[in-house]
Design goal:
This protein is α/β, with parallel strands linked by helices. The protein has 3 domains: 42 residues, no CATH class; 132 residues, D-Maltodextrin-Binding Protein, domain 2 (3-Layer(aba) Sandwich), CATH 3.40.190; 87 residues, Periplasmic binding protein-like II (D-Maltodextrin-Binding Protein, domain 2). The chain contains 12 helices and 11 strands. The strands form 2 sheets. The protein has a 6-stranded mixed sheet with strand order 2-1-3-10-4-11. Strands 7-6-8-5-9 form a 5-stranded mixed sheet. It starts with 24 loop residues before the first helix and ends with a helix.
Length: 311
């Protein structure tokens, strides 16, 4: 060593810059961002253009606002008007739509993978914190046509019923009606992908959705489950509702309702985008399905959840 002074290896950290008003840069930025948030501004430009320039403390504070709301839905024809409205609304910028079977959407909501879903209502009691967040859903006040028990023999001759794996609500409704409305004891079998092939003789099956519409002319007996529910209880029925597992941002429900309602104003466009020769979609969307969940629909839901809880 030559005796010269050792180099200074101390890491010098810059002190937060203090302005004339006595505020640090981070404090000033936080105040500005709070003002934007309170006034309902979309912060997308900040996230994508200036996010990396923000102090770490602010990234932590506002990071949650950068997350889109994950919404689960099914791609059945019965959801197309609602999805059309959502996809053609500015709310689409704030959400991510995930399509799956109804039963799998329930699982994802249970596990917190998604934030809300067009959920089969029988799954509501199984979701921690579940609550309905919209005035729209999939309901009926009579024949829904796309949820039924299909058979080649009358109900009194049915011995086995295959249960469609895609929706828990349809399965629970079928079981409830078979045992309490039709007063029958049958053997239930979980359906496989090709279970429709086994519906013959004394074997019947619950079929839902688009493939139910395709089967309407292929069987001697079609027992519409919502019509049977109406006969049994005198009430309307909700098959699916928009359900969340957490609190959603202020104002979101109002915007989401408006988006759903907008889709119902464009049925001609929805039908044009989804040609379906097996059933008249205008009849389906205006006569069979009721998208607005009024008090009569909610009374039916309350009764259904009460009945499945006690069985």
């Amino acid at each position: 060593m030559d005796g010269s002074a050792a180099p200074d290896c101390t890491i010098h950290r810059r002190s937060p810059r203090t302005h004339a008003c006595g505020c640090t840069t981070a404090t000033m930025l936080s105040g500005i961002l709070d003002a934007f948030v309170c006034d309902g501004f979309n912060l997308a430009a900040i996230w994508f253009t200036h996010w990396n320039l923000l102090p770490l403390s602010l990234r932590a504070k506002y990071g949650a606002l950068n997350s889109k709301i994950k919404i689960g839905a099914v791609s059945y024809l019965n959801t197309k008007p609602l999805l059309y409205g959502i996809e053609h609304s500015d709310i689409i910028r704030d959400i991510e739509i995930i399509l799956d079977y109804p039963a799998l959407l329930a699982k994802k909501l249970q596990e917190g993978i998604i934030d809300m879903a067009l959920l089969p209502v029988a799954a509501i009691p199984t979701i921690p914190g579940a609550h309905i967040v919209s005035d729209y859903g999939i309901a009926t006040d009579g024949n829904v046509v796309s949820v039924a028990i299909f058979s080649q023999v009358p109900m009194e001759q049915i011995e086995t019923v295959y249960l469609d794996y895609q929706s828990r609500t349809s399965v629970r409704l079928a079981q409830l009606l078979i045992e309490n409305h039709w007063k029958k004891k049958v053997v239930y079998k979980p359906a496989t992908e090709n279970f429709i092939e086994y519906i013959n003789g004394a074997n019947a099956g619950v079929i839902i959705g688009d493939r139910a519409l395709k089967q309407l002319t292929n069987f001697e007996y079609v027992y519409d489950l919502s019509a049977a529910w109406k006969e049994y209880t005198g009430l309307d029925f909700i098959f699916a509702a928009w359900v969340a597992n957490k609190a959603l941002p202020a104002g979101f429900t109002t915007r989401f309702n408006a988006a759903n309602a907008e889709g119902l104003k464009h049925l001609d466009a929805v039908i044009a985008e989804n040609p379906f020769p097996c059933y008249d979609l205008y009849t389906y969307y205006t006569d069979n399905i009721k998208f607005y969940l009024d008090e009569q629909k909610k009374k039916g839901l309350e009764k259904f959840l009460e009945l499945i809880k006690s069985t």
